[in-house]
Every structure is written in C-alpha cells, then in structure tokens.
Design goal:
heterodimer, A: 411 residues, alpha+beta, Cytochrome Bc1 Complex, Chain A, domain 1, 2 domains, 5-stranded mixed beta sheet, B: 426 residues, 6-stranded mixed beta sheet, 15 helices
Amino acid sequence: MISFYRHQLPNGLQILICPDRSTPMAALDICYHVGAKNEHPDRTGFAHLFEHLMFGGSVNIPDYDMPLQQAGGENNAYTTNDLTNYYLTLPKENIETGFWLESDRMLELAFSQKSLDVQKSVVIEEFKQRNINQPYGDAWALVRGLAYEVHPYQWATIGKEISHIEDATLEEVKDFFFRFYAPDNAVLIASGNVDEDKILHFSEKWFGNIPNRSVNKVALPKEPTQNSFREKTVERKVPDTLLYLAFHMPGKSDRGYFVCDLISDVLSNGNSSRMYKKLVKEKRLFVELDAYISGDHDPGLFMVSGKLSKGVSIEQAKHAVWEELEIIQQELVNGTELVKVKNKLEANLVYGRMNYLNVAQDLAHFENLQKAELINEQLDVYQSITAEELRDIAQNIFRIENCSQLNYLAK
Amino acid sequence: MIINRTIQPDLLKPGKPAFNPPEEFQLDNSIPVFMLHAGNEDVTKLELIFEAGVWQENTPLQAALANAMLQEGSRKFKSYQIAESFDFFGAYLQLYADYHFGAVSILCLNKHLPKILPVVEELVKFSILPENEFHTLTKQRKQRFLLENEKVKVLAQKKFSCVLFGEDHPYSQTVTANDFDCLEVDSLVEFYKKNYRSNHCRILASGNTDEHLLANLNQYFGEKDWNGSSLEIESFSVKSSNSKYHFVEKPDAIQSAIRTGKLLVKKDHPDFTGLLVLNAILGGYFSSRLMANIREDKGYTYGIVSSIPTFRDAAYFVVATEVDKQYEEATISEIFKEIELLKTTLLGEDELKRVKQYLLGEFIRDFDGPFARATAFRNVNDFGLDYSFYEDYYDMLLTITPKQIKNLANKYFETDSFYTVVAGRK
C-alpha cells in the first residue's frame, strides 16, 4: 500500500505528497497531461520538441540546470504518447529550489529563436540517432503506421518526419505552451524525504499565483475496428529478420488491459514462459521472441515480436506464433502458471516501491490516466483475474482480421 | 504573497553521506560475506562474486559464456526448471561477467528466498553446461554481437580499447564473430571448474535482509568440498598504439561516433579523485563545458559526455559522442579547444562551486538505499580499496581549488598524448 496525501490549489493544480523517510533525498515530479497524441498530424514530434525547450530557460530564470546543480540536484524528462513528465531529485534540504524552478517554467518560458533553433537541431540529431542510425530503429514507427488509421498513436513521440520539427515556428511553440502547460492540466508529486506541511506551503507560495488557463482539449478520433488483416514488408540492412504482429487491445481504464498484461506474461515473461520454452529453446525458430503490451492509455497494441533464427522463413515463424495464440484461446491457463505470473507481478510491485522517484512516476501515470489512487487497486485487479478471462480476451483479440503484420527483412 | 522569482531560495549544505560499510562475516569454508542491512521493503539482493572474468580466460568468450551457461542445467535441474523456479517466485536471476569477475545475482522477496537458495546452490556448484543449450546460447550471442557491431558507437569503442591497451591485453575488446564459431563447450567446462570455486568467491547481501540469511548461506555455500586451486592473478602489460588517430569505416552510417582520450592513473593514485572533478567540469554532467558548447550552443549532437572508466589495473579518460558526418571535424576541434581552455584559464569559483555541489548530490545518491550502498561497496572492495577512499573524496570535494584543477589539466591533458578514434562513413 502506498500512502499519499492529495491537495488541490485554487488554480486547479493537483498536489500529491508521498513521504519516504528512509532516503536523504526528495523528488519533485510535474506531469503535464499532454503527449504526442495531442499533436496536430502535420506537426508531429511537437510535444517532445517542447520537452527540450523547457530546458532553455524560463521568464525569470535564464538557466534551468545551473541553479539545480548548485543545489545538488539532477533532473530529466520524458514524453510519451499520453503525457510529458518532468522530474528532479535533490538532497532533501534543498527541495524549495525545485519548486522555484518548476513554477517559473509553468508560469512562462523565455521563448527565443536561438533556443528554438538549437533544440530543433538537437532533436533532429536525436531522431537520426534513434530512428535512422540504429538497426531496427524505424520498426516501431512502421508498426504504428500500419496498425492505426486515424488515432494519433499512429506516430511515435519523436515524430513522423524530420520536416515537422524543422518547420516549427516560434509562434506555434508559444501557442502550444499556453494551450497545454497550465496548472489545471498538471499534477505535482513530491516524494522521498518530504514533509506534508512544507510541501503544501511551497506549492502555494510558488505555484499559487499561476493563472488557471482553462485548458480545453480536443477529443481524439476513435480508431475504427480493424476488419481485415494488414501486412507490410520492408527490407533493411540489418543482421536478422524480424517479425512483428500487432493486435488492437483495450485501453488502460478497461479491465481487459490488465488481462492482456497477464496474457503477455504467460506467453513470454521469463525463460520459463511458453513462447520462450517452445519457440526459442525447443524448436529454435527464434533467437528472441517477446509478447508485450504497448502500455498506452487509450486502446493500444498487443505486440508479438521476434528475431528469426537463420534459415527460418517468415511463414514458418508466423505459423509457430499463431499456434501458441490458438492454444491460449482454446485451453485454460493452468493454476500454477497463473499463480506464477501473479507472483511475479506482486514481486515487481514491491521492487518498484523501493525507489521514491519510481513511486512518484507511477503516481503521475495513474493521475494522467484517471486518478493516482488507482495505484493501490492494481494488485487486487490482477489477483482477481481468472483463467476464463484470459481465454475470453485472447479469443477476442487474437483474430486474423485484428492483426497487423510487419516483415522486417534482412537484406 | 509577493515573491521575487528571480532569486533562488537559500541553499543549505546537505550533510555528509552516511557511508555505512557492510558488516563482515565468514562462512565455515572462509567465504567472506558482506551484509548491508537497509531499506523498508522485505527484499534481498544476493550476489556471489567469483574471480572469473576476462582476466582469467585462455580463450575468448570463456568468461561471459561460462557465466551465462550457469542457468542452463545442473545435476538435478534442467534449464527450464531453473527458469521456472525463479519465475514462479517472482525472483530475478542475473548473470554477468566483466574483466575480473563472474557473478550470480539474485533479487528476491525475503519470504521466497529459502525456496530459491537450493536452486542457486545447484547452478553455482553443480552446473553441467549441457552441450545443446550451449549451441543455442552461442548462436543467440553471436547474433547479438553482429547486431551490436552495426552501431558506430560500438565500433569506435572497441577500436579505442585496442588502441589504448594493445590487442593482447584483457581490457581490449577484440572478440570477433569467428570466436563464437570456434568456441567449444569443453573450454567453458574447464573454465567453470577452475574458477567458480569457494576460495575465489565473495558474497554480498543487501536489503532488509532477514535474521536467518547467514545460517541459510552457510547451509548451501559453507561446505569445504568446493574449494579450488589457489587463486593466482596474472599481470599483463599495456602496449598502446603508435599512431594517435584511427578511423573505422562503416559505409552508409549517417552519424559518426567519436572517441578521444588517454590512459590515466589508477584509482588508488592521490590525483585520482581530483581528476573526477576535472572530468565533471569538462564533460561529466549535463551543464558540462562540452555539453554547453557542442550540444546547447552548436546543436551538433544529442549528447556528448566524458568519463573515466576505471578497472582494477587501469583507468582511462574518454570523450564520447555521435554526430552527423558534416560536424565530425568541427566537433573534434571544439573538444580540444575546451581541453586547452582548462589548461590555460582558471575556472571561476561559481562554476567550481556548482560542480562540487552537483558531485556532492551524486555522492549522497551513491549511498542512498541498500542496492546503491552495495554498489558503493564494490566500487572500493573490487579494487582492493576501503572506505577511506570515500573519506578522501569527500574532503577533496570540499577543498579543491581552481588552481588545483588547472594544474591537473596541465599534468594529465597534454594534447599530444590523446588518442582519437572515429567510426563512420568515409
């Protein structure tokens, strides 16, 4: 059980405080409820570009990093399709510096053409480093493009095309800021060695007078039900051929999401899992094989991806995976197997709680989804899932007409 | 309330980290056990560390693959049964080998540890390294190796290690794809039988460990019947390259990977801790000079860092980055400009203060929580050092001056002594 306190400032900012006195450190996490899914289709990669701009100085503080380092702090940020999360950790004595820095950049950034130009260039190099210069770097983007027709999950956070980043103007950047970066579209989480009263005091002092910006988000287009099998084949200069199968699955507010998580664990979590045992170890059709869920908040993807052994054809590989997907639709997962995946989930939750920053980030994700309090319901949801549910959901998603297949061939 | 947002809140000096070295025990067969009792959750991390690294090899890949094979079958259990035991209890088994050590590491809820230990005993003491599993594993590793070799940063790093140490030195990364094909399971068995022995072993336990742990360890690992021949550690001489610039061609690469640096003094040298500060200023943290210049000002790269990789018998300084081909030369020239600046111009008190505060924060993190403390312990114990290393580092952080930094830069950063490796397209 993770205990935390919740408060709300009059401007709408949610405050969550989660003390852990076993550490000499404190964490401050600010999560903005804006991700790549909120971008315009012609300006993809914007949320992520923006994450970079947030380090280019704010209206009253020209440099973000230096004062933080002076306080012994460290920080970073990440952008997903659903959210943008900024976090810092400091020795507990200096937590107020975190409030000072974060509140000023929520108030207003120091927008400048120079800062925009440099960060555009950095992000373009990042795009090359991640997507182009890495073997298989573009695979995930290809899968998204194939599986989604209308939902913005069709592009990755780094963006669809480099030109979208190159063409971004200062005006657009400002507009994006005032549209999404606001106390009424954010949650502040303090964890680690923190005191509730002090955190509340600092929150009011530094964030209290930032105006509410009446954030109004456009509803996202709903992805229509996929009715026919999709397949795409690409050839690249990579050492091994990869096969990807993507199936549409329920979103994170749906119980089915957690069922899918367990299905993926039965299939491929650990060396004793079904697919690893049969297809990697026994039949040696794959060198690596994974089943996992994309983890998105809106309906996301159930993925099976594997690296083929030399000499194995896409047909053979695909056939073997489908055999496993058939079994889990027809036969109930046995008791021991189900206990195993649940034990593993329980252990992972305990391991995750050992780190105060990890706890803050988990709270941020649940708050972004719906409300942070859900964090304590997770284990019960998982524990209550039955073998019948696994079978039923498997039947529902592992259908050929719900499948997008990417063949990523080694040249 | 009117607040002045232009002024940073007052800073307090954080306290000195509590080093808390581990408690030391011995099993009946003299295996040293180090216990770091800390944390709130009932979790234990257990590491059995053997002198079984690249250093002990007589054939390439022996250390890594003998280590990886430990989970592939023992006298009582098949590979899948070992996997099943760990998975069933939500425990993690991690096997890793580096230049000096081969280790077996387990992360487990305390309540399940008694059920996991007999399995750990099997794979540590009674592994049989079965041949068919060996073939699967080498095939897998070879494919991973080939994939890694597609990356310019990997090619640059490998070449750089050979340039610094010479191809016959264990610290140079000279493994080829062919080595995977030539490897035989017998040589792994021989390596395992020689090196995974009680007199080559240390045990490190961290977490909110329970009171029975020591007795349990003694039950499974304390017997005298798995002693090996006495431990001898060979020495190797370093033969750095005669030429200072090396290029590794990778056709079609969009970005070029750059490595530039040189050998430094070892961790036990009195200048070593000061060099850590010098490194931080140049490229060891986010606001370093290299980042400020090459990423934040010029936008040539997503990241550029310098670091001091440290081993038992050596340490070196290296600047590492990946840039678009067109920025390759400009980047190298900017790196040397920044190095030159440290040698000629005293750095400001403000900058030094900032770096010190940053490193102090990092230092506190190094001792935050049981697992961090376990790493901190290994970072001295693996080197034959003790916690006085940390005492000295802390004192140095409080007292080092701009003049001392400049002296260190002049003493160690002679431009002619640097080696540069670039991997990318022509």
